[in-house]
Amino acid sequence: MTAVPDPNRRNDAARRAILSTAIDLVGEVGYAKLTIQGIARAAGVGKQTIYRWWSSKGSLLFDAFLAFAGDGEAAALPDTGDLAADLKLVLRATVDELDDPRYDQAMRAMHVEIVNDHLLAAEYVLRLDQPMRELKRTRLRAAQRAGQLADDVELDVAIDMLFGPVLNRWLQRTGPLTHDYVDQVVDTALRGLQPR
Amino acid sequence: MTAVPDPNRRNDAARRAILSTAIDLVGEVGYAKLTIQGIARAAGVGKQTIYRWWSSKGSLLFDAFLAFAGDGEAAALPDTGDLAADLKLVLRATVDELDDPRYDQAMRAMHVEIVNDHLLAAEYVLRLDQPMRELKRTRLRAAQRAGQLADDVELDVAIDMLFGPVLNRWLQRTGPLTHDYVDQVVDTALRGLQPR
């Protein structure tokens, strides 16, 4: 038998190469200077190949982030039955991820643009923030059923309180981003600031 | 008697004009394109006048933010004896401030640069974040003495948890920035996420 090239597999490889190139390139040149042309050149494909799959550099970049963050893994938050332990696991992994210069640069480039660009911010909310938020809500709802989270907690406020501090500290470099810090955030958020 | 011009008062007026111009200009052109020359021209003063008081556009801009935020008022956080009420007051005022397009634009311009620029981020931490943080710590220490805040709470974690969500929601536009939202953040942070 002769080896028959599998067009699906070839497409997959090309797609992955393009997404990976986009992450590298946005980290190098920033979002403003990122072009479809530039990504095509760096990935060694034609511009038309890219336009076949993506209508804009924004949607390409968000796919790249989703792929980089690991599509499969991100399908759910861990649920061992221990909410605090699971949240610490996720947040420690986030800290480790942001320690990777490639991811750090790409994420910074995107966040800078989001701060200034309404349309990109809307796409960020729709494609990254909301899907991730829904996974977090699902985990928190399970915690409510398990009696580890108060029933009347506003889930979005809980999410902002658990996941926001890490993002802030990273973006504004207001302090060291360590496992200890995220553990404290989780424990403090769960227990509250008031005396018990 | 003839009116003798008061050089101190004239200096004060010139200083204020320069700071106010810097806020306007950074909102218009962004930090990267902000120049001492441009500020001097827009404020109608000579470049040398600016260099007499500030060594860089960064330090000028941080003075402008401190002046805009109201030097005197920012000397302490309110302390009526009710921690939750005081925090809500401060955070509602922050929300109102960010609703001012002039402030919004200038703050965004600064934050964008902080994300990418290590040196500016260090200046931000030193000149804005740390002094504000110290005021917040002072208020939280008073709350600890009054029995409204647990003694073993890490104050910096508490501050990130109370003030971070508003900053995030504003920068990333992930949801509406309302008085209701900040009230929920304060109540949830104080009470904690666990069932009581």
Provide key terms for this protein.
Tetracycline Repressor, domain 2, elongated, mainly alpha, 196 residues, 2 domains, Arc Repressor Mutant, subunit A, homodimer
- Specify the structural class of chain A: mainly alpha
Q: Residue-averaged pLDDT of chain A, rounded?
A: 88
| Helix share bin of chain A | over 70%
How is the quaternary structure best described? homodimer
Number of domains of chain A: 2
Low-confidence stretches of chain A: none
Question: What would your notes on this structure say?
Answer:
2 copies of one chain form a homodimer. By secondary structure, the first copy, chain A, is mainly α. Chain A folds into 2 domains: about 5-65, Arc Repressor Mutant, subunit A, CATH 1.10.10; about 70-190, Tetracycline Repressor, domain 2 (Orthogonal Bundle). Helices cover about 70% and strands about 0% of the residues of chain A. Chain A contains 9 helices and no strands. The first copy, chain A, has helices spanning about 5-30, 35-45, 45-55, 55-70, 85-100, 100-115, 120-145, 155-170, 180-190. The mean pLDDT of chain A is about 90.
Helix-strand blueprint:
2 copies of one chain form a homodimer.
Chain A: H1 7-29, H2 36-43, H3 47-53, H4 57-68, H5 83-98, H6 101-116, H7 118-145, H8 155-172, H9 179-191
Helix pairs in contact in A: 1-2, 1-4, 1-6, 2-3, 4-7, 5-8, 5-9, 6-7, 8-9
